[in-house]
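Narrative of activities, Objective 1.

The group set out to show that a structural description can be obtained from nothing but a protein's sequence at a throughput compatible with the screening campaign. Below is one input-output pair from the validation batch, recorded exactly as produced.
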Amino acid sequence: MKGNALIGQSGGPTAVINASLAGLIEGARRSDRIGKILGMNFGIEGFLEERIYDLSSQSGEILDKLRMTPGSALGSCRYKVGDEDLPRILELFRKYDIRYFFLIGGNDTMDTIHRVEAYCREKNWDLWGIGIPKTVDNDLYGTDHTPGFPSAGRFNALCVKEAGWLARDMRRVDQFVVYQTIGRDAGWLAAATALAKDGEGDAPHLIYMPERPFDRERFIADARGCVERYGWVSIVVSEGLRYGDGTPVSAARDRDNFGNVELGAMGGASAGLSVHRILSEATGWRGEFQITESLPMSGADRVSPLDREEAYQCGLRGVEAALVGETGVMISLVREEGSPYRVSYATVPLKDTAVRAKAMPDHYINEAGNGVTPACLDYLRPLVGELPDFVCLEPIFIKEE
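Output recorded for this entry:
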């Protein structure tokens, strides 16, 4: 069916979310069944206010550079669509003759497009609704990994690697360093920092993820052991770290519109600072802490080239799926077996991806719960890419004659 296309971006950005947008626009321009290409300014919330971009009129120069641009070019939101919004959305679909609907986002975004697509079908409005995966957390079901995660993983791995060299050389001043990653329910980004490690004494020494309960006393013992062996300790924690009773280590309590605990946006709630305080009070050591918060979502200078290309392809494949009649699905990346790394593209039903988080599998986390396994490194390495190789001076000291 001929009609117009509508594209939106929701939730936090990734460093490659605009590559997916560029792929969608390019794919839609190639089709004679898609008329105008429209964009939601500030997501579904802006669309309800009829804030609509004309993406068909964007210049070729802008679209070329869009693939390399951080942020969410259309503007984003974290608006939870209510049942009362659905009639208004359908009214606007009719007004602008929208037949193809694409949202780029994570778990909550997939829920939004799933509900809108189902409502339109119920009301006999022919609509092809496709979700384009995006999240730095890598916690979407139905896909081997999520565009945005490889670049955020690379960002964090580089930060921990470089901060590790700083901390190693400053160990006479600071005996420990704590680095906090994004990850409310899944520890994928914390796990990715393990790629920073070349030798046994290199950062990170300890990695704590939400998939395992945080044990205060065991953590202190782990850290003491590292300082005894190396003279310092590098610690990585996920923001969503929890104690055995489910209490966030950050002590955060506020929740967003989708019921998710706010970890960092509400002023001072931080797992990293809590862990820093626990270790400092227990040992008397002086230590550094680093919390990049949302910077890995926009680090265009540290993008994984593979990630950018896969994000673009997801946009193209989203349009292709809609044009062959698929709807109510999300584009999925399927890792093929063997080496070298290869992926193919498929679709999965939105009902299987919405509103739930994919945790790291047990066999990716070591038995002690403070690091990752070789299988996890094998999964991560092709996504994040090669990291720089640093060197140490030989400990050659001048001898007295």
